[in-house]
# Entry
Amino acid sequence: MTGLTSILNILALLGWLAAAGGVFLAISAASRRASARPGILLTLVGAVAGLVFSTIGAGLIIIEAQQTGVIFRVVGGDADSLVDTPLGPGLHWVVPFIDQVTIYPTELQNVDMTGETSQAIEARTSDGQAVTVDITVIFQIAPDQVNEVHKLLKQNYRTVAVIPFTRDEVRNVIAAMTVEEVYSQRSSLAPDILEALRPKLESKGLTLSDIAVRNVTFSPEFMDAVERKQIAQQDIVRAENEAEAARKAAAGQADAAVTRAEGERDAEVARAEGEAKAILLRAEADAKALALINEQISKNPALVQWRYIDQLSDNVGIIIIPSDSPFLFDLQALTEAMQSAVVPALTETPDATNE
# Structure
């Protein structure tokens, strides 16, 4: 399409050059008293061609993709001298000098209202705290509303509608919240602003696609208070963790003490049971031994006397018994007699015990 416009412009230029050449030929022929008709004819043809191609080129309008052309007609049109149907993408021809076309983009556009562009929005919360919001507005001109945009805003729709409307709604949303709510609900600011801003832009022929809250800046005093609060909360959490660790350690020590006490108790019980069993075993052994001794004594009454004598010194030869006893014992003879009687009995003792 751009090539076609260039061709028309070239043809128009050639036509005007031909007209100028015809004028030069006509003047030259007249000065020589020759016929000026060829020059005049060339001038007329060149002028007509230049006028035609210039007119066609002046009325040729190219509308690119994602663009729409509003036609302002000096004669005719509606009350605002606009043609009802705007021009869509493609090649169009309008009446030169009668129709004036203003092209509007219908693609997505964005307006950055940030500190970098010196358009960051300053607002105050319900409790009087200053807040600065960096925001990006993404919008587009509705193709079927482009005439409305031209009537109400012309090409100043960014400065006349988008920026002031956005600033107002951001301030309204912030003003309904406390500074702590803004700080804790920063992620929900965008949906609230979007919901409030959309109908205001639509009333001007603009379609709001999305907004992005890029940054929210608070006063230094508030940020210091937030930092102190966070430090206090961290101290509380740290103290709770330490207390919980101490409780667990104390519980572990108590469980260990209980386990040791139970172990010592079980050991004492086991020792006591062992000692009791040992005593019983010793008593049973003593009882069996006494029973065996009694049995042997009953069979050999002289065994007691022999055991008594056996414990005496080897140098003792005679034993004096109490005065009321009429007997004196010959220890040598008694020992020999007892050995002959007791030894066989003692040799039988293991068999009796095993039984």
Remarks:
- The chain has four domains: 2-105, 109-218, 223-289, 300-355.
- The beta strands are 60-63, 67-73, 90-93, 99-105, 109-113, 121-124, 130-141, 206-218, 318-319, 329-330.
- The radius of gyration is 64 Å.
